[in-house]
Amino acid sequence: MAETLGKASALSQKPDQTTAGVEEKTRTTPGKRPEVAEEEDYDPFVHRPLENLNSDAAIFMHLFKSTIGSGILFLPHAFKEVGTVSGGACSILIAVLVTYTAVTTIRCAQILCKRARVPSLDLGQVAQASFEYGPANVRKYGNGFKIATNFVACFAEYQTVVIYMLYVASSFQQIIEYLSAVVWDIRIYIIISAPFYCVVSLVPNLQYLTPFSVIGSLLLTAGFFVTLYYFFEDIKSPIRLSMYTSFFAMPVYCTIFLFALHNMCLLMPLENSMKTPRHFPILLAISMMFSACVYVMFGFFGYNKYPDTCDTVIKNLPMNQPAAQAVKVAITLSVMFGYGIHYFVPVSILWPKIAEKVEENNRRVYEVIFRIGGVIITVLVAVALPELGPLLGLFSALCFSSMTLLLPGIIDLATKWEDSKNPKLLLVKNICIFLLWIVLLVIGCFESMRKIIQNYGGTKTEDSICR
Known about the structure:
disordered N terminus; globular
């Protein structure tokens, strides 16, 4: 994954072959779209550099690795909160919907590459181009939509690293408390691990993070299969489990499933690095549906094995068994090693904009301050709100629902509105997606905030005291 993103990042730095042209084109010809014949005459794929591109098989593996991540560890607990039947139904709905919005975004990006006559676009530029080459009354808002998209993307990745910090701290807390007599508050573990995150945040290029990515993937894979062994070691009847809890638990489950499944920020770099970009939508659909099946299986059987599952099911594995101890350490390290990949995304978006306003002689110093400052802020957030389960629900409702539902819907509308044979159907379809986004946002945030307030009000929930 890191290698692929590094290649895509390198490509994006070549001014004659890159996405940078879209801003120049839209500035020099504001509100103007090419004619249909002229648009079809341009094939963006043949203008991409031919060196260092990835095959379909390589892209499929990268897609699968980007989807199967640490988010899977939260699903057994999410199943407990919502019930087996409700969880299965919500999983199918979200999996189909997210697959649809992801594929739609890619197809829109490929259409917009033709309109802008550039080989490739990143996510922010797709948002910008959808407006500037879309309906006349929204073209002037293209740059604003790009800024909003980049803001949501950065917010999502900063939220992810906060969740990673909390998971690592709580896992090490459980391990160390079992192996020794040391009993520390989770905040101490967060602060102790902060220097590691500061060092990783200073890595200047994604390619240098490749060893961390490879090791993390191997550790996560090994831990995943050992965990499945514990799930299937003594299978009990699922009839004893709750099939349904409450309506208000369902939006929270959906947002956590979104957190586990979403990879919107990585789609464009992957598509931009393919030998055959036309195959990407079908590869993406197959990968996401397969990943969703793995998620549902893991969540259901994890809940079936541990009906009182903790916020992450790894905490439920028996601490007195060496294999379980090894899994806890392996997956915790894999999450730590995945920190750098997620932290790199907002840095790669924000720092170039800041660097333009800084004198070249002082640029390196300011970059170090910016990178470490971001780590310090995320550490302070984690220290202030160390309750992992409710915080994940809140962050997912706030941001990941917007990344996977709201932004793709707006891009789809703006890109296809003028050329749609049935604009009413296009509008109704995206309005339904927007309504679902509002439900997930409002109820998800409300329920997560209620749990956070309950925990800090002195009434500790089961989630907060689970070790």
